[in-house]
Specification:
Elements lengths: L5 H16 L8 E4 L12 E7 L17 E7 L2 E7 L10 H4 L1 H9 L3 E10 L9 E9 L27 H14 L4 E7 L8 H9 L4 E3 L3 H9 L3 E11 L10 H24 L2
Parallel strand pairs: 1-4, 1-5, 5-9, 6-7, 7-8
Antiparallel strand pairs: 2-3, 3-4, 5-8, 6-9
Bound molecules: hypoxanthine.
Hypoxanthine (HPA) binds next to strand 5, strand 8 and strand 9.
């Protein structure tokens, strides 16, 4: 196992947060993490200001397709917002601590809520493609956890509760918003794997039996970190493909991105509507 200097990690998070504070006057109350192909959610922000990851000290730089690699500061409605355009994935070789580095930065900036999005495969045979899925709960199937290692009690408890990871109040607001907008919203459990390969039929059967409705390669590390940090979480998946063993067809990343882009507009409208009520 790679040895990690946890004190240095904490210092680096602080330095990154201090750097960002020089550019932003108001603390971002809301954080948003964009999934693959979901860039259109960024269009919901007004009065924007952008900082590329590579300019922020110690900030890990994402390489995945459909991920820009910049922080966008702005407002959604009246809410001061910090949006990550480009997330970090385990399949890129990032450690769990690196993946959640931006979430820790958000914590130090005073972020109170986190909206996460992703592209995922629909394990639930009743799911429709291009329809958003409100995440009700998750399964960490990545074989790792961002909280492993030394705990900083100032950041959160050693053994955080996970009985309601996806904030019920925010979920209710999302359901109401979708109904008012006439946007169909599915609900279900998200399971995270490391990827980068898409699943075999045997793996899909297993994940379905474990109780998951959608499978993807992200989100769970950031969400675990946010809950640890006391940040309220809302999660929405774009269902981009049928991940059903019995009628599985070959899948490409291009198809995932194409359907994610179409779904992104619906997710953005839902987020906008929710923030009007916060
Ligand atoms: N499996 C894993 N990750 C994904 C999928 C999938 O079918 N679709 C989009 N991301």
């Amino acid at each position: 196992m790679r040895t990690i200097n946890y004190d240095q990690y904490q210092k680096q998070v602080k330095e990154a947060a201090e750097y960002i504070k020089r550019f932003v006057k108001e603390r971002p109350k809301l954080g948003i993490v964009l999934g693959s192909g979901l860039g259109s959610v960024a269009a919901a922000l007004t009065d924007t200001f952008t900082l590329p990851y590579k300019e922020i000290p110690h900030f890990p730089v994402s390489t995945a397709p459909g991920h820009k690699g910049e922080l966008v500061f702005g407002r959604i409605g009246a809410l001061q917002t910090l949006l990550m355009s480009g997330r970090l994935h385990a399949y890129e070789g990032f450690s769990m601590r690196e993946i959640v580095f931006p979430i820790r930065v958000m914590q130090l900036l005073g972020t109170e809520m986190l909206f996460v999005t992703n592209a995922s495969g629909g394990l639930n045979p009743d799911f429709e493609l291009g329809v958003p899925m409100l995440i009700t709960d998750h399964i960490n199937f990545m074989g790792n956890n961002p909280l492993v290692g030394q705990n900083y009690d100032t950041w959160g408890p050693r053994f955080p509760d996970m009985s309601e990871v996806y904030d019920l109040e925010l979920r209710k607001k999302a359901v109401e918003a979708a109904r008012e907008l006439g946007i169909k919203l599915q609900e279900g459990v998200y399971v995270a794997v490391t990827g980068p390969n898409f699943e075999t039929p045997a793996e899909l059967r297993m994940l379905r039996r474990l109780g998951a409705d959608a499978v993807g390669m992200s989100t769970v590390p950031e969400v675990i970190c946010a809950v640890h940090a006391g940040i309220r979480v809302l999660g929405v998946s774009a269902i981009t493909d049928r991940a059903v063993a019995e009628d599985l067809e070959p899948l490409t990343a291009e198809q995932v991105l194409e359907i994610a882009e179409k779904t992104g507009h619906k997710i953005a409208s839902i987020f906008l509507k929710i923030t009007e009520r916060l």
